[in-house]
Design brief:
Blueprint: H1 9-15, H2 19-32, H3 38-45, H4 49-58, H5 67-79
Helix pairs in contact: 2-3, 3-4
Length: about 80
């Protein structure tokens, strides 16, 4: 899916926000609301997932990782013979 957003030139000039900055902010907002995953958010932001996680950390935004996620990760590791 492709979404096009028209942002007035004045808004870009006043805030000195580039397209990359806008995409990062949209990705952060959607992730924070738990509407998209970390992987999707980092893709929208055009960032490596680890760099996006660092950005979230710098802003005091927690990852959405709970006990169920932890258990699923452990099970996946076991199923793939990780030692």
């Amino acid at each position: 899916m492709k979404i096009t957003i028209d942002i007035p030139d004045e808004a870009l000039q006043e805030q000195a926000l580039t397209q990359a900055n806008w995409l990062r902010e949209v990705a952060i907002a959607l992730f924070r609301q738990e509407l998209i995953t970390l992987g999707t958010a980092s893709t929208i932001a055009g960032m490596h997932q680890m760099a996006f996680q660092e950005l979230l950390f710098d802003r005091g935004i927690n990852l959405h990782y709970d006990l169920a996620d932890y258990r699923a990760d452990i099970e996946s590791l076991r199923n793939n013979n990780w030692r």
